[in-house]
């Protein structure tokens, strides 16, 4: 078999657990105007949505259009104003606004039809008056006119639409109960919609500025901390908007709008491609401190007795505590892992352990990711470890078996030939 065929088969095998995990789940995807403006991204997305639909996901697309509206108003010679990042929408803008959104929607439908024409059971893209708007009103003396805010979502109607096998599309256009047309912020709509229909995932494409320096995973307290020291206003606005969902959506994914494969990577690969903000884990992953020594010892001693982990004395643990990260749940240390920096840009992962009552909840994976991030921050480009019992778990998490000779010199000289541990290496 050729290498490319092998890679394909391995990738397919690895994605099977995600396919099973996502079947029947509801996903709201926010597409900013800048994303829609890129033809390649739109045509890739249309295909990918067809694939997700056939894998059993229920999809709501929320389409932004700021870039296109800016262009349309400029071309029509109409002046418009922003106030606190919101466009003021006077009555004379409305015809151009409706025309622009109508055209974009039609283009997206055309793309969608073309991308899925080969499928035996192609999804249909539908839009409707699911969102009820009301005027944003007069704020600090500024009348926002036809710029609206979300009043109500007909969430049952949209859930029925998804259950009947359709892909739902929302745009910035929404209507009030008096029949007036309003221009709604679509990121806000996506966040509210995801909460209202209790979506399993909210997937947001963002710009480079919005995503700059965000780590791969964020708990809510971590996100709140970043929000306070955001890299720029755009990032702080994006995170503030996500916070407004009150985390009724368990998982929010932030993806790079310039990466047309971001959606599939995020859903079907272990490391994803963007940032995952999660609210469904009530434990805390943090650097260990001296008070954790007792908890770590209680966790690792049974594993030491079984010979799974190498014995560590309390004194050694106290000296090396800064190398550890722990997961604490209800004041109990339920997981730990340590990173030992080394020369040659190769760091050692050691003492990865999850309490037996908490195994199988991906805590091991979370600890491994934290150690990888820590190693990268210390400029390591490889991670290695020695294990006697767990090499399969590590191989499934991106490591490969290696010879002792690849280890840093000092480690080679300390290698215990009686223990016959396997050497595993991962390139970061
Ligand atoms: C390895 C370990 C850290 C994984 O933690 P975890 O939180 O259960 O890991 P995850 O939830 O991310 O993964 C669970 C999966 O790994 C599998 N797994 C657990 N131990 C394994 C092992 N020794 N070999 C192969 N697979 C293993 C589980 O069967 C489960 O598979 P499934 O998803 O198909 O059901 C945990 O099992 C542990 O503490 N083991 C004992 C200590 C150890 O071996 N440490 C490594 C030495 S450095």
UniProtKB/TrEMBL annotation:
Family statement drawn from the similarity comment of this UniProt entry: Belongs to the acetyltransferase family. ArgA subfamily.
Alphabetized InterPro entries for the sequence: AceGlu_kinase-like_sf, Acyl_CoA_acyltransferase, Asp/Glu/Uridylate_kinase, GNAT_dom, NH2A_AcTrfase
- What broad class describes the main subcellular location of this protein? cytoplasm
* Top-tier EC class: transferase
Query: What organism does the record attribute this protein to?
Result: Thiomicrorhabdus immobilis
In Swiss-Prot or TrEMBL terms, this protein is called Amino-acid acetyltransferase
User: Which keywords does UniProt give here?
Assistant: Acyltransferase, Amino-acid biosynthesis, Arginine biosynthesis, Cytoplasm, Transferase
Q: Is the keyword Cytoplasm in the record?
A: yes
Identify the pathway. Amino-acid biosynthesis; L-arginine biosynthesis; N(2)-acetyl-L-ornithine from L-glutamate: step 1/4
HAMAP family named among the record's database cross-references: N_acetyl_glu_synth
Q: Where is this chain's protein located in or outside the cell? A: Cytoplasm
PROSITE patterns this protein is in? GNAT (PS51186)
């Amino acid at each position: 078999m050729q290498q490319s065929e092998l890679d394909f088969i391995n990738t397919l095998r690895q994605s099977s657990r995600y396919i099973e995990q996502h079947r029947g789940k509801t996903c709201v995807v926010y597409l900013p105007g800048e994303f829609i403006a890129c033809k390649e991204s739109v045509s890739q997305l249309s295909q990918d949505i067809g694939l997700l639909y056939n894998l059993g996901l229920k999809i709501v697309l929320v389409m932004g259009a700021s870039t296109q509206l800016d262009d349309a108003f400029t071309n029509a010679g109409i002046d418009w104003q922003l106030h606190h990042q919101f466009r003021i929408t006077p009555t004379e803008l409305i015809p151009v606004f409706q025309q622009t959104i109508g055209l974009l929607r039609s283009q997206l439908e055309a793309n969608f039809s073309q991308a899925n024409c080969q499928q035996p059971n192609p999804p249909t893209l539908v839009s409707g008056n699911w969102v009820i708007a009301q005027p944003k009103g007069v704020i600090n003396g500024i009348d926002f006119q036809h710029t609206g805010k979300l009043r109500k979502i007909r969430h049952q109607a949209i859930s029925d639409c998804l259950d009947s096998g359709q892909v739902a599309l929302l745009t910035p256009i929404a209507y009030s109960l008096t029949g007036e047309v309003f221009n709604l912020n679509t990121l806000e709509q996506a966040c509210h919609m995801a909460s209202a229909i209790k979506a399993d995932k909210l997937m947001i494409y963002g710009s480079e500025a919005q995503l700059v320096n965000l780590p791969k995973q964020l708990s809510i307290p971590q996100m709140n901390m970043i929000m306070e020291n955001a890299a720029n206003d755009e990032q702080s606005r994006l995170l503030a908007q996500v916070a407004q969902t009150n985390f009724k959506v368990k998982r929010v994914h932030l993806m790079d709008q310039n990466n047309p494969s971001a959606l599939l990577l995020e859903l079907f690969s272990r490391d994803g491609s963007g940032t995952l903000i999660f609210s469904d884990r009530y434990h805390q992953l943090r650097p260990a401190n001296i008070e954790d020594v007792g908890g770590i010892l209680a966790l690792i001693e049974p594993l030491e007795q079984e010979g799974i982990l190498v014995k560590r004395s309390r004194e050694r643990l106290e000296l090396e505590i800064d190398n550890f990260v722990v997961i604490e749940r209800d004041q109990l240390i339920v997981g730990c892992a340590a990173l030992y920096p080394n020369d040659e840009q190769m760091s050692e992962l050691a003492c990865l352990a999850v309490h037996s009552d908490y195994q199988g909840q991906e805590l091991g994976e979370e600890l491994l990711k934290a150690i990888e991030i820590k190693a990268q921050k210390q400029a390591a480009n490889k991670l290695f470890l020695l294990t006697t019992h767990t090499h399969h778990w590590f191989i499934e998490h991106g490591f490969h078996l290696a010879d002792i000779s690849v280890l840093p010199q000092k480690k080679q000289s300390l290698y215990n030939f009686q223990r016959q541990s396997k050497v595993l290496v991962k390139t970061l």
